[in-house]
From TrEMBL:
InterPro entries the UniProt entry points to: DEAD/DEAH_box_helicase_dom, Ded1/Dbp1_DEADc, Helicase_ATP-bd, Helicase_C-like, P-loop_NTPase, RNA-helicase_DEAD-box_CS, RNA_helicase_DEAD_Q_motif
Name assigned to this protein: RNA helicase
Bilayer-spanning residue ranges: none
Assigned protein family: Belongs to the DEAD box helicase family. DDX3/DED1 subfamily.
EC id: 3.6.4.13
Gene Ontology molecular function: any one: hydrolase activity
Chain intervals with Low complexity compositional bias: 32-41
Upper lineage: Eukaryota, Fungi, Dikarya, Basidiomycota, Agaricomycotina
Length: 600
DNA sequence: AAAAAAC
């Protein structure tokens, strides 16, 4: 049966506004509101600037090539044409032209508008390119482009602990120095105002040549946390001296990136790449991205045109290294993002091969930054092998332990889940522009549930690993821009993805790992905004009930009585899967400091 | 047990 709304439904009912009689029959008409997509001011934010867009300005380049052309459509990233390079890299890094930093002095037909170069040991900054700025930074009022960090002040509440030898003092604002002035301008274009706690520490840590091990999630501003210091130093210092074999490998030049970022999922690397494009603007650094499921020859063409900061999933990168298209000999900066997740997914062999088994400079000849939500033993081993004298940064949870996310629980048997879900969607539909992300455990369930929702007149889509990359990208795009404000997802979307405006996360199926739960609800309430999460609990979820209750208590959430009872029963009923499984639930701590016996 | 990821 459906013991609905156990944890209260505070005030939602009083806020519905419009009506929609085409809705499912589960809720009386007065509780229905119009489909969110329909009320969205602009379902497809900017009508493709492509064709006669700036591709034309560079002399008739095929628009499929650069990929900028596609991106205007949904405001976001994923299209097959934009597999690598972000459309950048026309011409070599050191062209003979002498660019001026001042836009007024740029020749009008300069095809390098927006791109800089490194020439004779100097950073030659490219002129501004307004079309490109609109493209990569978005319109100020485009919600799908909006950066999540609206309530930045709230970041000050996030506790940060830095340990290690001689930890540099954190910065308090974006300034030059220590940041390169060009980067500072780009940060301004991207409308970032105040550094997040991770960024405050990572900027001076990297600037001082130190390695970093950070326990933090994506919502903490971690992407900027590694992009800012790496790009800043790159702008100022230039690339590593090109080794002896710059050309002629397989007839073409091999890409020799200065910075490499590894992340577990395709969507995540694409998202990081989008950020990289913002901050590399007008500089000599050409960002590129490679991942599986997309046409590899297209990616090869693009990295050949410029690949200084490469974001990659491990499998595709290994493939490209084997094909001789990428050399890591020039790497100065290595980032492992979501390291625990990558190990969970079995990437360790590929990662070790990339870092230790190819031509990447050794640990003392590069700077390495590792990010991980947790710090279990296998990550510690990786840190021991990949990092040197690192600073350990522990960043408090942005979501769960703060009160930004209201966590509701409902006792729902499996057979009742669909019906309860419709109830919930209806009662939330008045929050007009918010997005709803629904997590299920299996790919099959993701398909079935999204079909079911569509049958019930909801604009829903789904994302999971059995869909083609194309479908995944489309799903994410229409979700972000509000055309399908409901997305059913498997674990593929659980971590790392930064989707602004997700106001509601539904754990239709609870995960069996408490960390997964934390990551999932962390898709809402991003960056200090508030969000709601609803979880369907039943007897099949007893394996995490104890940890759930602990978590709720920590986060100052209301705990339904029946949930506490269930937790109490579980602690006697044998089947506890102890906390000692090698993984603390909190962000982790620096085991080097001793600190009186960790929990692993 | 399922999910993710190279072809």
């Amino acid at each position: 049966m459906t013991n609905a709304l156990v944890n209260g439904n505070t005030g939602l009912e009083s806020r519905f506004d419009s009506m929609n009689l085409s809705r499912s029959a589960y809720v009386p008409p007065h509780m229905r509101s119009s489909q969110r997509a329909a009320s969205s001011p602009s379902p497809s934010p900017s009508p493709a600037p492509s064709r006669n867009g700036w591709n034309d300005s560079r002399g008739g380049a095929p628009s499929s090539r650069g990929g900028f052309s596609d991106r205007g459509r949904g405001g976001n990233s994923f299209t097959n044409n934009r597999v690598a390079g972000g459309g950048q890299g026309w011409g070599e890094r050191s062209t003979s032209q002498n660019w001026s930093a001042s836009p007024r002095e740029q020749p009008k037909d300069n095809q390098m508008f927006g791109y800089g170069a490194w020439k004779d040991g100097q950073h030659v900054v490219g002129g501004r390119n307004m079309r490109m700025e609109k493209e990569i930074y978005g319109e100020a009022d485009d919600p799908s482009k909006q950066h999540t960090g609206i309530n930045f002040e709230k970041y000050d509440d996030i506790p940060v602990e830095a340990t290690g030898a001689d930890v540099p003092d954190p910065v308090t604002s974006f300034t030059s120095p220590p940041l390169d002035p060009v980067l500072l301008e780009n940060i301004g274009y991207a409308r970032y105002t105040i550094p997040t706690p991770v960024q405050k520490y990572s900027i001076p840590i990297v600037a001082n040549g130190r390695d970093l091990m950070a326990c933090a999630q994506t919502g903490s501003g971690k992407t900027g946390g590694f992009l800012f210091p790496i790009l800043s130093a790159s702008f100022t210092m230039g690339p590593r001296a090109i080794p002896s074999e710059p050309n002629g490998y397989g007839g073409r030049r091999r890409a020799t990136p200065t910075a490499l970022i590894l992340a577990p999922t395709r969507e995540l690397v694409s998202q990081i790449h989008d950020e990289a494009r913002k901050f590399a603007y007008r500089s000599w650094v050409r960002p590129a991205v490679v991942y599986g499921g997309a046409d590899i020859s297209q990616q090869i063409r693009l990295i050949e045109r410029g690949c200084d900061l490469l974001t990659a999933t491990p499998g595709r990168l290994v493939d490209l290294i084997e094909r001789g298209k990428i050399s890591l000999a020039n790497i100065k900066y290595l980032v492992l993002d979501e390291a625990d997740r990558m190990l969970d997914m079995g990437f360790e062999p590929q990662i070790r091969r990339i870092v230790e088994g190819e031509d990447m400079p050794g640990v003392h000849d590069r700077q390495t930054l590792m990010f991980s939500a947790t710090f279990p033993r296998d990550i510690q081993m990786l840190a021991k092998d990949f990092l040197k004298d690192y600073v350990f940064l522990s960043v408090g949870r942005v979501g769960s332990t703060s009160e930004n996310i209201t966590q509701k629980f409902e006792y729902v048997e499996d057979n009742d889940k669909r019906s309860v879900l419709l109830d919930i969607l209806n009662s939330h539909s008045n929050e007009s522009l918010g997005l709803t992300l629904i997590f299920v455990e299996t790919k099959r369930m993701a398909d079935m549930l999204s079909d079911f929702l569509i049958q019930n007149q909801w604009h829903a889509t789904s994302i999971h690993g059995d869909r083609t990359q194309r479908e995944r990208e489309t799903a994410l795009q229409t979700f972000r821009n509000g055309q399908t404000p409901i997305m059913v997802a498997t674990a593929v979307a659980a971590r790392g993805l930064d989707i602004p405006n997700v106001t509601h996360v539904v754990n239709y199926d609870l995960p069996s790992d408490i960390d997964d739960y934390v990551h999932r609800i962390g898709r809402t309430g991003r960056a200090g905004n508030t969000g709601v999460s609803t979880a369907f609990y039943n007897k099949n979820n007893k394996n995490i009930v104890k940890e759930l209750v602990e978590l709720l208590r920590e986060a100052n959430q209301e705990i339904p009585g029946w949930l506490e009872v269930s937790a109490h029963e579980a602690s006697f009923g044998g089947s506890f899967r102890g906390r000692g499984r090698g993984r603390g639930r909190s962000g982790g701590r620096d085991y080097r400091t001793g600190g009186g016996g960790g929990w692993w």
